[in-house]
Amino acid sequence: AVPTSIMVGTGRAATLGVLFRRGDALQALDGVRMVAFDKTGTLTEGRPALTDLDLLPGHDEAETLALVGALERQSEHPLGAAIVAAAQARGLQMEAAEAVEAVPGRGLRGRIGGRALLVGNARLLSEAGIDIARLEPLARAQAEKGRTPVLVAIDGVAVAALAVADPVRVEARAAVAALRDMGLEVAMITGDTRATAMAIAADLGIDHVEAEVLPEGKLAAIEGLRARGPVAFVGDGINDAPALASADVGIAMGSGTEVAIESAEVVLSSGRIGAAVDALAISRKVMRNIR
Ligand code: ADP
Ligand code: MG
């Protein structure tokens, strides 16, 4: 009877777009007490757009956006794509940027026409010794709306705060509510600014937030959460692979990177996060039948 109910459960899950890559995943899911989500691309659509550009006095909007776009053209981060798209939409001429370097978990630095640029979060500018006091209130106002502030410094001077919004997925709120109704804790893990993460978590009804997590820190974040009980982690990115492997149950979005899928026990082939709720519900039902 045991293998039969597991087979039936696995088959039912497959029709809902839930693929169990390992036979014991159905059982492990039943023991989970917390579901932790990666924010970008999992709880949010992962299609950010530039919404605001707040300049300090004495700087030109088009010039600043052209410089930032020129730098971000060499980035692979979705924030960069949003800024480049905005610069292109305005028909701005972007010069060639030189010596562009990604600073992990922080942003970019590089040079354009003899000027030194820094583009990224508050940590990036602060660590470079730049006074960001006049940008902080602008950044905070954007973060409180759930937008990611992108700060800009030119030749060591703070110049502007851009804001990029990545809308939450329409289905995310219902998925979080369903998990909480099942008595599970819900957490969010993100590299994003704490204030931005808290605003999005409040909007979604998420009770636990790990923010400003560096790419190599996601694994440690999962280990920290596991101290409270078994954790399922839902993610999609290259950076998510170690966390997927270390969680009690790793759940990868089917739309995610190959390395994420290979690190997970469960794959949501439909790309719906609601399928994670289905997976948990099915595992509970099957395991109750077996006991
Ligand atoms: P996440 O994918 O969760 O945003 P990352 O480690 O990729 O995590 O980035 C962490 C933070 O570093 C971002 O939220 C952003 O503030 C900043 N950042 C990273 N890359 C860029 C970039 N190309 N342009 C601007 N900011 C960036
Ligand atoms: Mg990410």
UniProtKB/TrEMBL annotation:
Entry's localization field: Cell membrane
Key words, A-Z: ATP-binding, Cell membrane, Hydrolase, Membrane, Metal-binding, Nucleotide-binding, Translocase, Transmembrane, Transmembrane helix
Listed GO biological process terms: copper ion export; copper ion homeostasis
UniProt keyword Translocase, yes or no: yes
Record carries keyword Translocase: yes
GO MF term set: ATP binding; ATP hydrolysis activity; copper ion binding; P-type divalent copper transporter activity
GO CC term, one of those recorded: plasma membrane
Top-level taxon: Bacteria
UniProt family annotation: Belongs to the cation transport ATPase (P-type) (TC 3.A.3) family. Type IB subfamily.
Designated name of the protein: Copper-transporting P-type ATPase
Gene name for this UniProt entry: actP_1
